[in-house]
């Protein structure tokens, strides 16, 4: 495209812009790293760098993160498994996240509730279903478990005994 006042050719180098965004690839990478490694949400990070929080959140979810290619996306409503968070000391409990539905959560005690705590989240409390999901963790990893902390509830004790020999 010609610039009429200078007669020079003006163009945009789209390789500088991160796919699906209006941010340079470098800045998008920087923001992605901030979101991935901090306990702050996209809106607070965006505010600090004077970019639109809503836009950063949208761009992060749809383009910058690996959400669309996430291997657990097809079953994420039913269960999530994070093998890399396994440890020797685990805790199993149940919670209601919203609308009264129950989820069983297995956590690594060493992480002390911070990043890397969650080993598994399984919808429901039925022992057989939870055991089948936990059995997807390689036996070698499950055999390293020394202790599972739980409130005395029959199904949780059964889950612990069957899943962590």
Strand order of the largest sheet: 1-4-3-2-5
Number of DSSP helices?
Answer: 6
Which structural class should the secondary elements be placed in? alpha+beta
Ends distance? 69 Å
Ranges where pLDDT stays below 50 over 5 or more residues in a row are none
The count of β-strands is: 5
Percent range for β-strand residues: 15-25%
List the secondary-structure elements in sequence, H or E.
HHHEEEEHHEH
Q: What best-fitting shape do the alpha-carbon axes yield? A: elongated
Radius of gyration: 22 Å
Number of domains: 2
**How much helix, percentage-wise, in residues?**
25-40%
What characterizes the major β-sheet?
A: 5 strands, mixed
Average pLDDT for all residues: 84
Textual characterization of the structure:
This protein is of the alpha+beta class and 165 residues long. It folds into 2 domains: 14-69, Orthogonal Bundle (Arc Repressor Mutant, subunit A); 74-163, no CATH class. It has 6 helices and 5 strands, in the order H-H-H-E-E-E-E-H-H-E-H. The chain has a 5-stranded mixed β-sheet with strand order 1-4-3-2-5, with helices on one face. The protein starts with 24 loop residues before the first helix and ends with a helix. The mean pLDDT is 84.
